[in-house]
Amino acid sequence: MVGVGVGVRVGALLCAALALAACPPPPVALPPEEEPPPALPETWQRAADEVRAVLDANADPCVDFYAYACGGWLSSHTLPDDRSTYGRGFGELIDRNHAIIREILEDATATGDDLLLRYFYRTCIDEVTIDARGAEPLAPFIGWIDEIRGHGDFFNVLGILHASAWGGAGPLFAFRIEPDPKNPTTYILTFDQGGLGLPDRDYYVADGPRGAARLAYYEEHVATMLTFLGEDEARARKDAAAIVELERELAAVTRPRAAMREPAAIYNRVGVDGLRKLTRRLPWAKYFAAADLGPIGDNLNLTNPEFFAALDGILKKRSARVLRAYLRWHLIHANAEHLSAPIAAEHHRLEALLTGIKALPPRWERCVTLANEGGLGERVGPEFVRRTFAGASQTEAEELTRAIEAAFAERLAALPWMDPTTRARAEEKVRRLVNKIGHPDRWRDYSTLELHDSFHLENVFALRAFESLRHAGEIGGAVDKEEWELAPGVVNAYYSPPFNQMVFLAGILQPPYFDADWPAAMNFGGIGMVIGHELTHGFDDEGRHFDADGVLREWWEPQAQAQFAARAQCIERTYSAIEALPGLPINGRLTLGENIADFGGIRLAYDAYQRRVRERGDEPQLLADLSNEQLFFVAFAQGWCSLASPEITRLLTTVDPHALPEFRVNVPLRHAPGFWQAFACEPGAPMRAAEVCEIW
User: Fold this and answer.
1) Active site residue 458
2) Among 15, 47, 264, 685, which residue's Cβ finds the most Cβ atoms within 10 Å?
3) Catalytic one of 231, 378, 396, 534
């Protein structure tokens, strides 16, 4: 043992005396080697690449978060010629869903296994036959219209048209069969104001050169469309002037859209007898017999009784000639896109003026949209769901929904402004909430639908009637709460006040809103905000008037009502101070319900996400320079990246209860403390509001 020790010492001394390069270096203590971070799962890596490509890291998130989150996408995309708006969610996602539905329809057309899908799609894409027929498909209806000699004939034909060519949508007024707001277990017939060819009453009553020029253009367009029905130009111009004047009078008695958001104000169950008292000179018996809606009795609601009372005087002044012209115009206007190319092109000319769209979408896409949203959505639904909503999607979406509901329950319990009685009722409403996720458990029965194997527009009429009138004859009868208002392939979600239900369609449970394999921060920021948005609709300025059973009644105590109104006024003022375009302010009253839902949605989703992190621990960061809290807000915003024409911006600001995407992102976040903390936005930063609005 001694020898070993001496030998070592001598060897070291010899190394010092000899050339050092020839001697081995003494051992050096190295720090432990760091292991590289584990590779991200493939789905995470794709998500990371997409997030990075969409955002603009050079923008300051505390100045303009929408520009920061969406700048990369906005700079790399242009508005397609056949779209007036286009976004990552309501654009790219719709395109992906439509491509799948197109395959389903083409497969059905090729195999012939499903005759409804085969007949519909084959006739819809048959442009040769459609062009060859011109306006011929309207001939039976034109024949009835041409027989009108007085008001009795007019109301008879109006009933026929409502129940066939329109499926309840117009003209003169619209009807729908829906749950009775004060007894939501039974169906009621609702008559709604309508009868306008332009998108809104404001297009007729607005002053100034812009409004006058638009009406003049519209009148010229009406005249041109009437010539496709055989009128000479001189007669068409006279009829067009009379039609526009009639519509101006209808617009004058039409309530503004914001005023139609009061549930109690639009519930006027007068019954058929009450309608006759309001309009003593109008032959409603002719209308109801022709529409064939079954017994109605007192199950008739009017959204605007003043509108219907005014019809007496408005129609009394019109000759049979004007009434015929009015119906002819609305018949071709409502169906122009399904007629020959010259008619569709003239219809597009007006659409281009109103929306800025530069070209018609390809024929196949128009057919897919019609199938998905116009009556066959639950026929293509099972296969669409099989292809897009498999694996853990249902389970993950259900878990997210429960997490958002739990976050809302926690907020309810802590609300300082709500009295205990109202709070207990609100908590009961949340407990009774029903969630529908992905697709119906029971698909719609199409056994009564018959489609034509040769002619497209006849199939459109059949689909409209099937979709809108399937409950005709059931007015006053039991409501089917298992029905879905939208098809699973639609990119949307909704809250139903009379059913106290939230519905999240498979069509929106896709990227950029949701993926079962994504990090939690992205899913909570994407679809989680949507879930919170819909849940908040049950407690917005409209939804709060419906109780846990879906009954329209006042269940809030006066103190809570006053507190809610004051907080809602803060949100209304905030949006009303914003201009969508120079000189075009947002209508804070019209958009109030959606804005309340946006404010509540992002807060609820963030609360639920934080609770998940506390309970399960944080996940690895998707991007090194974005914390998971920051990723949550980026994922939320990137679902709303969108382009729009100036024309559609003006139109949507007039008619749409939603704010524009930029403001749906930036405004709620300015009022969200969690956002300020995540991005360290100091007081005074543009993305940190000085006066914070908060309801839920």
Assistant:
1) no
2) 47
3) 534
